[in-house]
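hey so i finally got around to running the thing on that chain from the lab meeting. sorry it took forever, my laptop kept dying and i had to restart like 3 times. anyway pasting the input first so we r on the same page abt which one it is
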Amino acid sequence: MVRARLPWLLVCLPLAAAVSYQSAIAEWRRQREAGLRRDGGWLTVTGLFWLRDGPNRFGAGPGNDIVLPAGPDQAGVFELRGGRVSAQMDGATRTIRPDTEDRILVGRLKLFVIRRGDRYAIRMKDPDSPFLRQFRGLDYFPAHESYRVTARFVAEPRQIPIANIVGQTEPEDSPGYVVFQLHGRQYRLYPVLDEPGAKSLFFIFKDETAGQETYGAGRFLDTDLPKDGMVELDFNKAYNPPCAFTPYATCPLPPKENRLPVRIEAGEKKYGH
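ok and heres what got predicted. didnt touch it at all, straight out
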């Protein structure tokens, strides 16, 4: 009886694995969309205001340096001095650390400080964002396991220049590169590390679907750190940068090394396509 059942097991196991993979991708997509929709997600980013040295008044009144869509006419002052940003509001002053969860609340609005190179800006998040209200979901290529590939990692630590959409270029740490096969040809991609001690690799890439089926400036992909010299690249999990959803993001652009001469028909399609 065991021998008779063996052929059925050989058929069923791959089918079960395929179903399990599709379920995993479906769950990843659900979490991806939930992240965009969540309070504080990219769909709530509705403003970006670059600070000048000295005081920057903010509030709903038209005479402010930063005019808000809600709140009191004069809400407070951001002060930029010597690379530090402080906020004066309701008679109190405190320093706001850039690129953290430090924030100022003005009614429903959340105001954060970001730093890009030697420039500082205020990022505004609004739970009543029109981008959130108008969001109708994401579109994807069908998920095929042929786009989940195992790449060889080559350790070659260096810095690579990464430009962003506001015209700045900054060196970013790259631990090396990955080499992989796709459609019978060999390619390589260079990841960067988001922060010191990063627990994942961050790929900014562009392929020949860009500007057609996918976002014109390129897409992102996250992976685990190399294990035994290998990295799994699952292009079914490639996703759009925040700039696809709000004009108030400062997205990095793919370095020249990561512009691939191949169509990668996997992952997230152009938003609104």
